[in-house]
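Exercise 3.2. Students should predict the tertiary structure of the chain below and write it as structure tokens, then compare their answer with the key that follows.

Predict this chain's 3D structure.
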Amino acid sequence: MGPLRLGLQYVLSFVFIVQMYLAMAVIGLLFLPWALFSARGAYAACHSYCFWVIWSARLLVGLRSEVRGTPPEDAVLIAAKHQSFFDILLIFSALPRGRFIMKKELTWTPILGQYAKRIGCIAVDRGRRGAAIRLMLAEAKARHDAGGQLIIYAQGTRVPPGEKRPYKIGTGAIYADLGQDCVPVATNVGVFWPKRSMLRMPGLAVVDFLPRIPAGKPVAEFMAELEQVVEARSEELLDEAGFKRV
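Answer key:
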């Protein structure tokens, strides 16, 4: 990409980001009366916002997206690779009743935090470690009967393409405690939507729902299998996207 084209891409990226946050405010306020009285309204708002960002990313910055595999509709644990805000939107848009395990700080943000509470997201204070895992397990079990798809980012944070981070034991603890199947999710989104950068690049961003890992496996075996399948598939998707490793 030449300097002129790159400069234009930065301008388009800025326009995209501004309208993305304006859309969050507009959609959040429009759906607020319904969302206050019904989780269904909150889900409708969140899905509408996801579809808007996905559509506007394609229109403004040339970032196309694709969901592969079979997104689950039953009550399962989803353990995903996390590279940017965009994979959050792509995963959520593909699920009927997704809810995230998320860092506590996000619940304080205007609009996003309130809607996260309405759809049953579980907030975790990452600084408390052992206490945070115990609280996370308690909340996950308390909301188990609500069904839906509980989404956890197995590495606990965004990890840029090409970097290696350990998979957190909290994922294994929830898998064992809830006794549900786990659907791993791989992605290459970070190639086009980098961490801590305004630039949004054109291309095809993919999230891939992989075959289920059945409930009931020993935690160590589950964690090893989860990391192997997610990392291997994510590497394939990075190659598909033309990612250049250092």
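Discussion points: The chain has a mean pLDDT of 91. The beta strands are 63-69, 76-80, 98-103, 122-124, 149-153, 182-187, 203-209.
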